[in-house]
Specification:
Number of domains: 1
Number of helices: 10
Shape: elongated
Distance between the termini: 35 Å
Radius of gyration: 21 Å
Oligomer: single chain
């Protein structure tokens, strides 16, 4: 009996208390990462003064608002995935992504109907915005990977996909604060494309980072 107690004491002596993984703590990580993304954008690319001057178009607010909403909806579900449970649902992320998808679909259809589709596709600044937004998405992705590694996602592939989508949306919304091009075609195509790109990267890369 004493031998068993001694063994248990030795094993327990190596344990250290760990902060509980609550939704509030997970969302705090997401908010901190998103804030860091905005700070990085402001420090590196600067912030466009269009909104303060009242010259920004409605498309600027619509695009960045949809991106931020979709990003936080997906990020919330990623936080929830770190603590899998019976009956967990992810309807919020699906609906928000569906609403975001309507924006480029309707925009591209409208532009081509007006004969402006080719011009929007040949945007000289489009690729730069897409790559820059995807790069800034890595900040939020790092925060989400940190949180997922603390937990035990039951479906790493889905967790990686959602983390990538969340990071892409929040990274694009952050970078959108610096972009002075607020036309419908530019925002609907080149600022939404990072969400898809980051989602693919997240689906491929992040599950490998969750394997112990």
């Amino acid at each position: 009996m004493r031998s068993n107690e001694h063994l248990i004491s030795e094993l327990a002596g190596e344990l250290r208390p760990v902060a509980p993984m609550t939704m509030s703590r997970g969302l705090a990580v997401v908010i901190a990462a998103a804030g860091l993304s905005i700070a990085a954008v402001a420090g590196i690319a600067g912030v466009w003064d269009g909104p303060a001057a009242g010259t920004a178009t409605i498309f600027y607010y619509l695009a960045n608002g949809l991106l931020a909403m979709s990003g936080f909806a997906c990020a919330t579900d990623v936080v929830r995935m770190a603590n899998p449970g019976v009956g967990n649902r992810y309807d919020g992320a699906y609906w928000s992504l569906a609403m975001l998808a309507i924006f480029p679909v309707v925009a591209v259809g409208t532009l081509f109907a007006r004969g402006l589709g080719v011009q929007a596709m040949n945007d000289s600044h489009g690729l730069e915005c897409t790559l820059s937004a995807t790069a800034f998405a890595s900040i939020t992705a790092s925060g989400l990977v940190f949180w997922l590694r603390r937990g035990a996602p039951a479906n790493p592939a889905r967790a990686g996909l959602f983390a990538g989508l969340a990071a892409g949306a929040l990274g694009s919304a952050a970078y959108g604060l610096s972009c002075p091009i607020d036309t419908l075609g530019h925002l609907a195509i080149w600022h939404v494309l990072p969400v898809l790109l980051a989602g693919v990267i997240g689906r491929i890369v992040i599950p490998r980072l969750l394997v112990w």
